[in-house]
Amino acid sequence: MAEPVRVGVLISGRGSNLLALAEHRRRDPERPYAIVLAASNVPEARGLVLAKRLAVPSWTQSHKGLERAEFDRLLEAALVERRVELVALAGYMRLLSREFVERWRGRILNIHPSLLPLHKGLDTHRRALLAGDLEAGCSVHLVTPELDDGPVIAQARVRIHARDTPQSLEERVLAEEHKLYPLVLAAYAEALRAGAVDAAPLPGPALP
Ligand code: GRF
User: Fold this and answer.
1) Which helix (H) or strand (E) is 186 found in, with range?
2) Torsion-angle region of residue 156: left (phi > 0), alpha (psi -120 to 50) or beta?
3) Which fold has domain 5-193?
4) What does R_g of the chain's alpha carbons equal in angstroms?
5) Which of 122, 174, 178, 180 to mutate to test the pocket of ligand 1 (most atoms within 8 A of CB)?
6) Is the pLDDT of residue 55 over 70?
7) Could you tell me if residue 65 is left (phi over 0), alpha (psi between -120 and 50 degrees) or otherwise beta?
8) String of b and e for 157-187 (b: at least 16 CB within 10 Å)?
9) 101: which of 56, 111, 134, 144 lies 20 to 30 Å off by Cα?
């Protein structure tokens, strides 16, 4: 069996998707990915506590007071040190710099709680309800420099009920996220290993 693809998960908060990705891998050690780092721009993120419980190494650095590109260079150094090959954004509430996204082209996935291209950005469930949508859902997509804009790889859908609130909708969509993301990450990792996706060469260690 080929070596699993080394994944770094980027979080800013709760970390329920990190947990889902890690649990799927734990239940099936033959999965083509292994989570080797949880990185956060929010030192007090609850997801970091989960990472510790899961025995996933973590890295954190507040972005406050740092230029975006400067922060992303520190982040990249942490990823390179753990020999990360694929980055999974999971509730990472920060736009990545263009330089970072270009250096990791084809190697960054994100999960977004809407049926993209609908409702990019925040507050997706409230906006789906206000728009009168009949369906909501989540999308896993490749990350490009523009927010929630890269090619969609897969989506899961739920029906919107008349009595839904943003909270009830979020619960149902989140349950779908936890099923969809591990499947897509596994499929993408396999394709990456097989050389079947267009991805930039791995960034090396920073020059002294
Ligand atoms: C999820 O809804 C995800 O789709 C969005 O941010 C939320 C993160 O939740 N990008 P969690 O931190 O994984 O629990």
Assistant:
1) helix 166-193
2) beta
3) Rossmann fold (3.40.50)
4) 17
5) 174
6) yes
7) left
8) ebebeeebeeeebbebbbebbbebbbebbbe
9) 56
Cβ–ligand 1 contact at 127 (below 6 Å): no
Task: Give the tens place of pLDDT for each residue, 158-208.
Answer: 999 999 999 999 999 999 999 999 999 999 999 999 999 999 999 987 655
**pLDDT tens digits, residue range 23-33?**
999 999 889 99
Sequence-distant (6+) residues with CB within 8 A of 174 are: 16, 113
pTM, entire model: 0.96
Q: What is the pLDDT of residue 186?
A: 97
Nearest CA to 40 among 16, 24, 59?
Answer: 59
CA of residue 22 to ligand 1 center, whole Å: 15
Q: Is 156 in the pocket of ligand 1 (CB under 6 A)?
A: no
Residue with CA closest to ligand 1 atom 2: 113
Type of residue numbered 115: L
Q: Which of 177, 178, 179, 184 to mutate to test the pocket of ligand 1 (most atoms within 8 A of CB)?
A: 177
Q: From ligand 1's centre to the CA of 208, what distance in Å?
A: 36
